[in-house]
Every structure is written in C-alpha cells, then in structure tokens.
Batch of 4 targets.
Target 1
Amino acid sequence: MQEIIVEINDERIDTFLAKTLDISRSKASKLLLDNVLVNGKKVKNSYLVKENDKISITEYEEEEIKATPEKMELDIVYEDDDVMVINKENGIVVHPAIGNTSHTLVNGLLYHSKNLSTKNGEFRPGIVHRIDAYTTGLLMVAKNDKAHEFLAEQLNKKTVHRKYIALVWGVINNETGTIDAPIGRDNLDRKKMAVISGGKEAITHFKVLKRYKNATLIELKLETGRTHQIRVHLAQIGYPCIGDEVYSSGKNRWGIKGQALHAKSLEFKHPITGKKMKLEADLPEYMKKLVAGI
C-alpha cells in the first residue's frame, strides 16, 4: 500500500493522482474504482482534495511497479550485516516508479543482497531516505527492519548529519548563511516543489568554499530533509545549482546531466552497535571537471 498526505487544496482527485503518480487521468479514474481510499472512504473523480487528506492506494501500485533484481555496479562505501552506505552515481533513480521499473538503485540492491528491510514495501526495500536521480553521493540502506527503524528515528530526530557540495550560478558574497523557508508542492506544477506559505519546515545552512567569476562552490548542511530542499532553497535566494533545468530559468549550458550537487558526507549512529559512523565520498569526475573549467 502507498499512502500520500495532501499538501494542497481544491484540486480534483483524478487530476491530483495523475500528476502525483505521473499517469493518465483515465488510469487515475480506474484506480479510484477499487484501489483508492481518501481518509478511509471511496470518493468520486470530482472529489476536491483538501490539505492533510490521507490517500491510500492499494494493490495496483505495488503490482505495477514491483522491483526485480538486476546486476549493477554499486559503489559501496560501507557494508555490514545491518547497514550499507552507497555512493550513488549520476542519473540513477533510487527506487522504481510507474514508467521506470528497471535500472534503479533498488534493482541493484536486490541483486547484491537478499537481506533488505521491508519497512517501505516491496518496491523500496532497504530505502531509508532518498536523493534525486541527478544528485550523486551517499545514501543509507537498511538490511533489516530493526536497523531501518533506528535509522529512520535518527532522521526524524535530526541526529543524522548530512553535508552536500554544490556549484551554483552567481557569486555569493556572504561567507555563510541559513535558508529557513517552508517547502511544499508547487501549486501550479505538481511535479515541482516550491517555497510556499503553509509548507513544511525546511532549513538549509551553507558556507562558501570558493568563488569564481560567475559561480560559487559551496558546502551545505541539511537540518531538515524535504524533497528537492537544497535545489528549491538555492533557487529561492537566486543562486540555483548549475545544470538544474527544473529550478533554474536558464538553459543548461554546461553539458552535464542534472544539477551539480553531491552528497559529500553522512554522520549517524550505527543502528546495532551504537558506534558513531562518519563516511565521505569524493566529488564525482564530472563535477571535478566542471569545477576545474568554470
């Protein structure tokens, strides 16, 4: 079962599902017949979703996008019986979705290990948190449910420390800064996030590492973990990630796929031993070349 908490008001549910699940409205209408409940009840296509509505999608979603093992090259930074940390490469989606059921990180994880947590269902085994397809870097994976629960609790309590490196368009004058701006679904484009009134708390800290003629290399620390948080926040203050075609008004003139954003470090407590874990991943080659030639 998949559950969605609505963050906007007054949109037809068939339209909402089509945009959120990236399916046609006709397919969304079929789902509404037998596979969707809103706050525990069936609703018509014309139902207008409200903020905090709980939408439950049964059977169809998991059957449609069930993940299968696939041999892949995984850059495993750390692994034991309970947890893995993967250095995800550029362009790899974390888990399957409608229209993209193969060559995701989950497909590779299923081939690599038969022991993955089941807390997030059949198509997201082991996945505790995510990073965007075109964001590289470190990602925690739980190999059993006990480890998953402990890691998820650390994320909720904000005791997992994550640092990112980004190359942004424009020269930032301040040495350090904090972006404290709530994030929710863009009211005009459901596939995008935006800084909106009434959104969820989102806090990003940054410091300048190096300035260039028209760009700045920065390190960022997340205090919260909203979808696309760094990309939305940087665009909001006028310094979007280089290469970000979603949150930047300019064209991608740098010849890279996606945004120049890398999850550099992870710090967390081991879910079983309690040992403090601190892991790092060097910048990927495409970002090194980009920085060298900027």
Target 2
Amino acid sequence: MHFKKNRKGYICGSFNKHGIKACSSHIIREQNLKDIILSDIDFILTTISNKSFLDNISSNLNKESKSSKNKLDSIETKISKLTTRKNNALNKFIDDCISKDDYDNLVESINSELNELKSEKLLLESTMSTNLNSNLSSGMCYFKSIASNINDLTPDVVNRLIDKIEVSEDGTPRIYYRFSESSICLSDFINQTS
C-alpha cells in the first residue's frame, strides 16, 4: 500500500505502479485504519487482562501439544514398521525368496513412504520444539507493555506492534500483530479462544 496525501489514505501499491492490469485501486483511509488499530489494541488489552481468556488459550495450546505428541508417536510407529518391512524384504532377497526386481520395487515404495514420514516428523518436531504457550504469554506481555501507553499511532509504535497489514479489494484490513515469534492476525487470535 502506498500513502497518497490527496486521497488521505493508502492505495494498492501494485495499482499505483502498474495500473488496473496489476490490481484494483482499493483504498483504506488513514483515519479509518488508525481507528481500527486503536480499537483492536483496546480490545486486545482488555482481553489479555482477562484470566479466563488466558486460561482458555493455555488450555487450547495444551490440547494442540498433546495432539501433536500423539501424531508424532503414530509417525514413529509407522517408521518403525516400515523399517522392519524393509529389513524383512532384504532377508527374503538374500534367501532367494523374491526376485531383484520385486525387492527393488518394494524398497523404492518403502523409501518413498519413509521419506514422507520423516519430513512430516521433522516439521512436527520443529513446531513442538517451540513452547507456544510461553512464547504467546511473553509476546502478550511485550504487547501489553508497549500498547498500554499508546495515545497516538506513531510509525515506531506501528512497527513495534504490527507485522503487516493486508487490505482486501473491498477496503477491509487484515492486521497481523506481533504477539510472538510469528505474527498473529487479530481474527486468528480471537478464533483461538473459541
């Protein structure tokens, strides 16, 4: 989005540079955006001060953690079974119970499945290694320390609290706030508690 003083707001940067072929001329007025952000900040500050809200988030994160642990256990079991099948195929090949072609096809199939499972396992482990609960909690404390003293939205405040803002063609903003290592959109933040 590019700020246009004569339109008192932000217009699509792609449209501004390349015209209608690149995007539409959607706009959000600066004052409307400020009002939305200040309203969001008030809502967030009120909400994160609510103990039951934080307990609910913590409970949801714990459920997610348990679910991830169960998925990881399931993946490890599958990997173990596939490794055993692969070793059994090797023994059958050595004992001349199956042909070289059958052995190669079976091992190729097993290796493909093993690679998928190992990739899924790595992704799950990396997600689990970050303690989402403490990251979110410390992120909210950081947000609260900055946001509680806001009287006006300065560029410094916006850069410290907001990761990015997307504006749809109808002018509706989607604001991603910095609560943790990854930014969280307010609507996603609200949905976490449902």
Target 3
Amino acid sequence: MSADFAGETARLYARFRRDLPSDQAAELAAQLGLTADDLLLDLGCGTGQLTAPLLPHCAGAVAVDPEPGMLTGLRDRGLPGVVAVLGADTDLPQLGRVLPPLGALVVGNALHWTDEASALAAGAALLRPGGGLAVVTQGPPLWLGGAPWQQAVRAVLEQFLGPVTATCGSDAAALADRVGLLEAQGLTVRVSSWRADHPVDAAWVLGHLGSALPGDALTSGGLRQALEDELDRQTGPLVEQVLTTAVVARRT
C-alpha cells in the first residue's frame, strides 16, 4: 500500500495521522540528548507528527518533506520556530552546508521511502558531538493490527486490492537493519518502545486509510461502502493498540 501524498491525501494526513504522544516525545527527547539550545531536523516530516511534539524540547526545527501539500499542512499548524523546507534525504549534504550542527535528526514513518543506508549516513554526518538520530515508527499499520475489527478491515482491503502485507518499515527485520546501519556509522544505538491505546471510530478509520491508500482507491469501486458496512457490523468499542518503536543513535 502506498500513496503519492499530494492533494486530498495530504489533507487527510493532516487530520488522521497522530502526533507522537507527548509523554513518548519527552522520553525520546531525553534519549536523544536534545536540549533547549538545539536545532532539530525532521526528515520526511509529513504534517508535523514528530516536529510538533518534539518542538518544546529544543530551540527550533527544520522540517523537510518532498511533498508541498505536506508542508502546507505543517505550516497551517502555526508552530513557532519551525522552518518548512521542500526537499528530500538527498538534500541533506547541502543542508549541512548552511545549518549549524544538529542536536537531533528524526525520521518518522518515511525512512522506507529512501535509500536507507545513504539517508542515515548523511543524517549522522550533521550531528553535533553528543547529538542523536532517531528512526521512529508507529506500527504495525492499522490494517495489520491484531484486533478483530482490524482483521475485518484487512479482509475487505484484500478483497478489493489484493494482499496488503507492507509493514512500512515497522517489522523486526527493518528494525535490525537500521540498528546495523547506524552502528556502522560509529554511533551508540539503543531501541526503545512504548505502547498506547487509541479509541477510534469508523470515520477516523476511513480517514486514516484514505491517507495511506494510493490515489482514489478508497472512493472508487465500492471499497469505502464495503468498509463502512464492515465497521458497522463490529460490536464493542474500536481501539487501536499502537506500538511506537524508536531506534535512537547517539554520537559519543
């Protein structure tokens, strides 16, 4: 499952992608060694799901994304001290020419869209001594969750779209690869995880899926109606159990 992240997809992303919970952001900032004097860079920032909760822990942030619609959503949040930059991982070396050494660089659910080895190496090169780099995933994706309602959503998606097995880099193999790539940069690496339960409703589930599906997949061919019907059949509250995993690497 993938999306082009433009237009309506970007608007849905702004409404239906969660910020990292504030308590998790505080713990992540501490593990990164982020200080009130530091500059943060959020690579593949989306509409600010990491930028916003980490902003209270630093002096300011540079938020980088290749999709203008995402940056529009970020700017609409009116976050003070945030500079939005249209760019990608391949622009990190050039950014390093104009930015001071970073206190931290973070990547959310975006690293799997890059050449991970090159992106992590370029990001590590921008850190100040003692600075940190974190790869943060909030997964597995909703459609791979274990709750009965999530399994029902997956069954409907596969009926219309075929197998939906992509983990968006949230699986154990991707985690191990990233640990190895960061250790190869001479960084000290630790892995942390946090769990949170998020009550949702059918409107939120459909909006979230709209932010993840390609193009107009949700609104064509009867998929949306089939999902609505399936969610209506579910009994009891809908709760998404989210496991956040952070691979945190420090330059010591």
Target 4
Amino acid sequence: MEGDFCAVGKFQGVMDGVIHKLFRKRAEGSKATVPWEEFIGACLYDGEFGYYARPDKKRVGGEGADFYTSASLKGGIFSELLAESARTLIKKRWGNPEIFRFVEIGAEPGGQLVKNSDVIRLGDEISIPKNAALISNELLDARPFSRFKFTGGKWSKGYVAIEKSGGGFSFGETFGDAEARELDVLEKYFPRAKVEGFRIDVSFDALELFRSICEKKWSGVIVFADYFRSAAELLELPNGTARAYRKHSDFSDLTLYPGDTDITFSPCSDMFKDIAEECGFSDFGEESQESFFVKNAENKIRSIAELPDPMDVRKRELVQIINPAHMGAAFRIISAVRN
C-alpha cells in the first residue's frame, strides 16, 4: 500500500470513541489501516458511537440539525406525493391500490412517511407482506461504501490510514489491491473511467441490501428516493461523490468529526436496475424527483397549486420539492413493479 498522511484530529466524546475502537481493532503498533467501508460503517452505525445509532443526535431538519431532506419539510407534501405516485403505479398495473400495504424501509426514529404504513427502522428485520408498496427516502446513500481510484494503470482500493501521534490521530489514505468482485463491478459499469486519478465510490452493502429486498417473495412496487446518478453521469465526476454533512455544510474530508457527521455518496442507479430486473421486476425507471412526481402525482400537485393563499405552507413546500433549483433535480427516484 502507498499513501500520505494528510489530516490530524484531536477528538472528544463520541468522535474519540469511534476512532479509538477502530484503532484498537486494526492497530499494528502506532498505525492502523482501515478499509473505507469499515471506517464509514463505524462512523455511521457503531452501536455505541455511530451517527445513526445515537438517540441524542438531531440529524434532519432546520436549526441544530445537519441536513435537509424532502421528508423533513413540515407540511408533509413529499410524503403525499410519494404515496400518490406509488398508488398511480399500482393502478396502472393492478387497478386496485387498496390491496397493497405501504412499507417504509429506513425510517428516521419517530418518523413515518405514509400514515398507517408498516415501518422498518435501523436494526429491524425486513419483513414484506405479499402485496406491498415499498418506499424509502435516502436509504441506500446512507450505507457504508468503498472508495476506488484508478492509479498506475489499474483500479486500487482506498483505505484510511490512522496513526496515533501525541494526544490525537493523524489520518491519510492508502491504496491496495481491489478484490476480484469489486473489479468486476468497476469494469462492468465504468469501463471508460480508466483515467489516472479517477475516483469511484460504490456501496456493496447497499447493493446487498437492495438484492435482499428484491429476492423476497412479494408483489408490488418499489419507490426509492435518493441521490441516485446513472453510470454515465458518474463518469463526469472524476473526484467521486463521497461527501459529509454537518450543521448544513458539506465537505469532502470524511475523517472530520467521526460519529458526529453524516457521510454519504451518490448510488449508481444502473446497478440497482440490474438487480431489480434479475429478481423479476420490470418497468424500471430512474427520474428526477420533479419529473417523477409531475408524471405520477399530477392531481395531487394540481390540488396544492390551486390553493388560494399564495403564502400557504403547502404551496411553498411544493415548490421546494419539485423545482429543479431546489430539491427537484438534486434527488432522483427509482421505481419498478413486479407481479
């Protein structure tokens, strides 16, 4: 492996706990080398110190939170549009949406997108009824991901290099050989990314989670909202898509504030399309949030747009959700159906 140390951190509390646990697990003398997916997984999901495991952490919303999502808007318009769109897809295929049960995967603690839906939260067993409308918001981009770089004529896998120094830790990145299965994925989806220094971020954890959902025996629709990007779009992003959010600011150094920041990336929609189709789903679509809702929730959008008060909170939220200058283009929705 090769690489340089590039950042220094001295932490307290949660952040100190995450790094100490990782270091103890991987330490060889004063140094430890940790795969990016393991580092990100610990920062997000460690049972004691992980970002998503902490009941005291306000992650989504306004003041005091780290980031906004469409679902965090208080008027609930996103939830209404998502539910209406799922019903539209069901009607097109089966006619009667009432026989399908809404199931939300990855709901925030205490939150629920669709009233009376079945909610599957972090750590819950994934159980899906026979007929289901399966929905999620930013589930797949919150899974641990690996980082790769094309260097020296080949794809190499990234690792976090941690060195204990004085009262803190130094961080850097090193690179080693990628596994055969990882190289197969990179070759399949990014054959034109073989340019010196090009970076790709892939969550094999998210792919396995999605496959486990699709392989279960159930009929219905999938409607997942996320930061999806196609393989073609990712080829236009040579630095990868990994980023972190804290107090509504984003930054690229994922080693800052471990356990106290959201770490995310943009999942490749082509990979999920292939899994869905392998599992018998059809009519796979990947669209901007704006396009998907305009196409599938037209009546709901019209009813809100025609509200007489121009300052109605629901009208303002509608603009935020579907306007390309706000959330309409940033978020994408993948959908598919299976009999």
